[in-house]
Design a protein that fits this description.
By secondary structure, the protein is an all-alpha fold. The protein folds into two domains: 65 residues, no CATH class; 220 residues, MetI-like fold, CATH 1.10.3720. It has 15 helices and two strands. It has a two-stranded antiparallel sheet with strand order 1-2. The N and C termini lie close together (10 Å).
């Protein structure tokens, strides 16, 4: 297992290098001169010259990439010229909010998607199967911003049970924090639950028709044990893959949902940075997101081996 992890880590390094080249290169394709944009409406030539020198815009492209990569390796992602704060500080400020929202949304998705997929596969062709597929289709078809607005109208405006928007740290008031995060977590988890349900159903149908499941049933094992201990464990591989990818998507920032519920997470940060041409923030957030995807895929590979001993033996 250790040798496998070392091989996987060895493939991560060149992948990250390629990602840095891609992020920096695509950033240079954006139209306009960053120094002129950041100089404001007056565009004082002295200010423009100062910004070009500070951002190394007067250097060749490979030299600018070298400056940026050197800073990244030392944990310096640059400074936001709009907010006059280091990008690492901005990420550290927004990351806990996004992690909390992503984890809550994933819990909602797992709590809905996996049981619905199991029931749909076990009760194939029955009313339960059709109902689960209808709910999954509804989850896939419903836009997040529309569902968020409906939840606000129902639970905030009409019933007055939950706050319509805003964010409170759990360290300040965990009850208010939970109340403000329930609706956005459900909005995000609803769409992921639909995808999880479809993948769980497909994997379970394949596993339930295998020989070892028929053998377990022939031995007289309880149907509950056959489904949960034999079938579900072997059907977890695609579910783990999907869960890791969806968590990476959530960590990258749910832009529309965060805008609807006014949550100060990664989504709002990246939108503001793009509109303000704050290139250092854009590069830092995208690099962090790409790294999170790669790390989550590595963790998914480890989870494969823990869930399925046959993979560990190979």
């Amino acid at each position: 297992m250790l040798s496998y992890l070392l091989r996987r880590i060895a493939t991560i390094v060149p992948t990250l290098v390629f990602v840095t080249i891609l992020i920096f290169g695509l950033q240079q394709l954006l139209p306009g001169d960053p120094a002129v944009v950041l100089a404001g409406e007056e565009r004082d030539p002295n200010v423009v010259a100062y910004l070009r020198q500070k951002l190394h815009l007067d250097e060749p492209l490979p030299v600018r990439y070298g400056y940026w990569l050197k800073g990244v390796l030392h944990g310096d992602l640059g400074e936001s010229l709009r907010m006059q704060k280091p990008v690492t500080a901005l990420i550290a400020e927004k990351l806990p909010v996004t992690i909390e929202l992503a984890c809550l949304a994933l819990v909602v998705a797992l709590a809905i998607g996996i049981p619905a997929g199991i029931v749909s596969a076990v009760k194939r062709g029955t009313a339960w199967d059709y109902a689960a597929n209808a709910v999954a289709l509804w989850g896939l078809s419903t836009p997040n911003f529309w569902l968020g607005i409906l939840l606000i109208l129902l639970f905030s405006v009409t019933l007055g049970w939950l706050p319509a928007s805003g964010y409170v740290s759990p360290f300040e008031d965990w009850r208010t924090n939970l109340a403000s995060m329930i609706m956005p977590a459900f909005v995000l988890g609803n769409a992921i639950a639909a995808v999880l349900m479809r993948h769980t159903r497909s994997a379970m149908l394949q596993v339930l028709s295998s020989e070892y499941v028929r053998t377990a049933r022939a031995k007289g094992l309880a149907e509950r044990n056959v489904i949960l201990k034999h079938a579900l464990r072997n059907a977890l591989i695609p579910i783990i893959t999907l869960g890791a990818l969806e968590l990476g998507t959530l960590l990258s920032g749910a832009v529309l949902t965060e805008q609807v519920f006014t949550i100060p997470g990664f989504g709002k940060l990246i939108v503001d940075a793009v509109f303000n041409r704050d290139y250092a923030v854009v590069q830092g957030v995208v690099l962090f997101t790409a790294t999170a995807y790669i790390v989550l895929n590595l963790l998914a590979d480890i989870a494969y081996m823990l869930a399925n001993p046959r993979i560990r033996l190979r």
